Fold this protein.
Amino acid sequence: MTAPGFGQEADAQLSSIAALLAGLPCRWGFCGGWAIDLFLGRPTRPHKDVDLAVFRADQFTVRSHLASRGWALQKVVAGKALPWEPGELLRLPVHEIWCHQPAFFPSRLELLFNETDGANFRFRRDASIFLPLDRTVLPSDSGLPVLAPEIVLLYKAKDAASPHNAADFDSALPRLTAEARTWLGEALKKLHPGHPWLNFL
């Protein structure tokens, strides 16, 4: 991995997360706004937290990896954070995990479960929208893994009026491949007919 070049504090934060998850034997990637910046190879805006994408099928592997390193994990159920007990299988609609380790930098991480059928990523809000697994998590120029930008933007499209989401779409759009644009456009037509981003894809 090479330093992302986002500034001393951001680089230290990203590097420490990469080191924390280096031995994790399953797919993971930065998601949210950090995924867009890493995909672009440059900072575009501040980020208030760090979101990481993992697959629900790997939940016990991820939980064990973090818990053995002193992390406290809470599931978010109907907006309320509750302990995620050892051996507890989390099913939909639960998809958000808050992680806290005061001795680590950063001390808080957010895990977001993604769905898979074993061969494809399946979009949580509509399982008919899918993408082959080998196109789901990609290496950025720094070597850090990111959730594919078209998937990140599809999640963000639900709240297109958010300044952060709008900025992420504007920043990523010129770098999206034709394949990624087509996939995102078709998904938006299915989920959000008339979505304003369709005018630019």
Q: What stands out?
A: Residues 8-148 form a domain with the Beta Polymerase; domain 2 fold (CATH 3.30.460.40). The chain has a mean pLDDT of 94. DSSP finds six helices and ten strands in the chain. Residues 8-21 form the longest helix (14 residues).
